[in-house]
Design goal:
Function: Catalyzes the phosphorylation of ribose at O-5 in a reaction requiring ATP and magnesium. The resulting D-ribose-5-phosphate can then be used either for sythesis of nucleotides, histidine, and tryptophan, or as a component of the pentose phosphate pathway.
Family: Belongs to the carbohydrate kinase PfkB family. Ribokinase subfamily.
Radius of gyration: 18 Å
CATH class: Alpha Beta
GO molecular function, one term: ribokinase activity
Number of strands: 13
Distance between the termini: 26 Å
CATH topology: UDP-N-acetylmuramoyl-L-alanine:D-glutamate ligase
Number of domains: 1
Pfam families: PfkB
Catalytic activity: D-ribose + ATP = D-ribose 5-phosphate + ADP + H(+)
Structural class: alpha/beta
């Protein structure tokens, strides 16, 4: 087994890339209605890829595994990973499009509604994970979500557990899950909606989040982190329950990607050896900066920017 010191700073993320097509307007159109928008932007996105960008900018050495098409959106994906110093394990499929996402952003509140078509990444299987087992074995933290098929996510958690790698499961979008997946999760990071879908517990406050977290602990999760938007994030385990406040870093421009920023930042901090509560604060600060900027991946801040919010000394990223 690889020594823990050799794994420091290394994060492997399994997930999807999509190109975000973002439209801004003062409200959503009704079915059958056309309205005028105020702005349009196209850029890199997808939960897994966003988390990879967040973790890389936060100083981690990141390997990202996905599938893309041999098309213009796939070219954007490869350029993004190259620019961010991310090692991409991306299978390129001919005749299958790279994923795309329609994002509506409310001009007034910055809140969003999203439709995701996974494209090539929606064909991922457990074999994609088996192909990167050496990368996972060399990492300190493994992260996955549910935008790619569940069998691939499950296999990733199994392989990481086999090699003693910390597992972070972001169950988004929420899907019905067999209970045997939960013991594979050192950390699970649902938002309020996802936590409710997984547990049946409606969440309106931190106490509700604790009740939902107790359900997940009973299913075998090591530690539950429920992200609560402006309410911060709750860490709940068998030994502690701590609410970490949100960081308000300016006017909210766009909330899309904030959860990805939290998860990517949390993983990067864990990978460099920070304790869970400190890693949560780092993730909350990163997300607090990201919502003040447009875009998902483009909104992710640098390590120095997050440390300035936290009041810590600045330092250099671990990757070149």
């Amino acid at each position: 087994m690889i020594a823990r010191e050799e794994r420091n700073g290394r994060v492997v993320i399994l997930g999807i890339y999509v190109t975000d097509l973002t439209f801004r307007a003062d409200r959503m159109p009704l079915i059958g209605e056309t309205i005028a928008g105020s702005a349009f932007a196209m850029g890199p996105g997808g939960k897994g890829s966003n988390q990879a960008v967040a973790a890389a900018r936060a100083g981690a050495q990141v390997v990202f595994c996905t599938r893309i098409g041999d098309d213009a959106f796939g070219s954007i994906a490869r350029a993004t990973w190259n620019d961010e110093g991310i090692t991409a394990r991306a299978t390129v499929l001919n005749g299958v499009s790279t994923g795309a996402a329609h994002i509506f952003v409310d001009d007034i509140t910055g809140r969003n509604a999203i439709i995701v078509a996974s494209g090539a990444a929606g064909t991922m299987t457990a074999a994609d994970v088996d192909a990167i087992e050496a990368d996972i074995a060399a990492a300190r933290v493994f992260v996955t979500q549910l935008e790619q098929p569940l069998p691939a996510a499950r296999r990733g958690l199994e392989v990481a557990r086999k090699h003693g790698v910390i597992t972070v499961f972001n169950p988004a979008p929420a899907l019905p899950l067999d209970d045997d997946i939960f013991p594979l999760c050192d950390y699970i990071t649902p938002n309020e909606t996802e936590a409710t879908a997984l547990t049946g517990v409606p969440i309106a406050n931190a106490d509700d989040a604790r009740r939902a977290a107790d359900v997940l602990l009973a299913k075998g999760v090591g530690t539950v982190i429920v992200t609560l938007g402006e309410g911060g994030a709750l860490l709940h385990s068998a030994t502690q329950s701590v609410l970490v406040p949100a960081y308000h870093c300016g006017r909210v421009v766009e909330t899309a990607g904030a959860g990805d920023g939290f998860t990517g930042g949390f993983a990067a901090a864990l990978a460099r050896g920070e304790e869970p509560i400190a890693a949560m604060r780092f993730g909350c600060a990163l997300a607090g900066i990201s919502v003040t900027r447009a875009g998902t991946a483009p909104s992710m801040p640098t390590l120095d920017e997050v440390n300035q919010v936290l009041g810590q000394p600045t330092s250099s990223p671990l990757h070149p």
